[in-house]
């Protein structure tokens, strides 16, 4: 009688992932990110997503000028098994602009995702990933409901699940204070596509 074993998927470390890129197995055209050791195909972005993300990067770059580094759709390093590419990151200034390595959780002041078709994924997969990494502030620009979901203060519950203690909703006509920069606020009407000035 034949016995069958259950196939165990290969989990990649950050080192494995970078090696796949170095040898050319993965290229920029592959549009994947490493999430908890798995290569995850990134979803194609529609017009609403693209306009919102472009506006977000533009507005934050103007607001922050040389106070921090604004990165759009670039990798962050969450060892040992994740290297997501969030839609936006505000990272601490670094002289080499992270040439020496992608920002890690200690460098990140804010991570944000723009979500329409990816909303459930950003809420149920990315949110606990960022909380587990200790990223203090996570924003989801919810294009389905047309508001900003702002999460702060990561925690782990008794069952080992990660999340955020605080969740605030900001309508697209509101302004929101930037984390680590209480003197600066972002006018959301300049970011959400249907509310652009």
Secondary structure elements and their pairing?
Blueprint: H1 14-22, E1 32-35, E2 38-41, H2 47-64, E3 68-72, E4 88-92, E5 108-115, H3 119-132, E6 137-142, E7 147-156, E8 162-170, E9 175-178, E10 181-187
Parallel strand pairs: 5-6
Antiparallel strand pairs: 1-2, 3-4, 4-5, 6-7, 7-8, 9-10
**CATH level-3 fold name:** tt1808, chain A
Task: Count the E strands.
Answer: 10
What portion of the residues fall into strands of 2 or more residues? 25-35%
* Class derived from helix and strand content: alpha+beta
What is the residue-mean pLDDT, rounded to a whole number? 92
User: What is the helix content?
Assistant: 10-25%
Q: Which segments are poorly predicted (pLDDT under 50) over 5 or more consecutive residues?
A: none
Q: Order the strands across the largest sheet as they lie in space.
A: 3-4-5-6-7-8
Secondary-structure element order, as H and E?
HEEHEEEHEEEEE
Biggest sheet features:
6 strands, mixed
The coarse overall form would be globular
Rg for CA atoms: 18 Å
| Level-2 CATH architecture | Alpha-Beta Complex
Text of the CATH class: Alpha Beta
Terminal-residue CA separation: 71 Å
User: How many domains would you count in the coordinates?
Assistant: 1
CATH homologous superfamily grouping = tt1808, chain A
Number of helical runs? 3
């Amino acid at each position: 009688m034949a016995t069958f074993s259950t196939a165990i998927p290969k989990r990649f470390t950050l080192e494995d992932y970078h090696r796949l890129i170095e040898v050319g197995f993965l290229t920029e055209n592959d549009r994947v990110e490493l999430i908890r050791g798995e290569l995850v195909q990134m979803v194609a972005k529609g017009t609403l997503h693209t306009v919102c993300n472009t506006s977000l990067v533009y507005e934050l770059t103007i607001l922050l000028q040389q106070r921090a580094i604004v990165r759009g759709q670039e990798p962050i390093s969450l060892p040992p098994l994740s290297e997501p590419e969030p839609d936006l990151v505000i990272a601490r200034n670094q002289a080499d602009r992270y040439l020496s390595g992608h920002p890690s959780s200690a460098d990140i002041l804010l991570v944000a995702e723009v979500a329409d078709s990816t909303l459930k994924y950003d809420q149920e997969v990315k949110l606990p990933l960022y909380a587990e990494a200790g990223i203090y502030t996570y924003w989801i620009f919810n294009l389905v409901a047309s508001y900003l979901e702002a999460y702060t203060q990561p925690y782990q519950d008794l069952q080992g699940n990660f999340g955020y203690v605080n969740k605030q909703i900001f309508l697209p006509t509101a302004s929101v204070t930037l984390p680590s920069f209480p003197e600066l606020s972002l006018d959301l009407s300049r970011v959400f596509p249907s509310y652009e000035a």
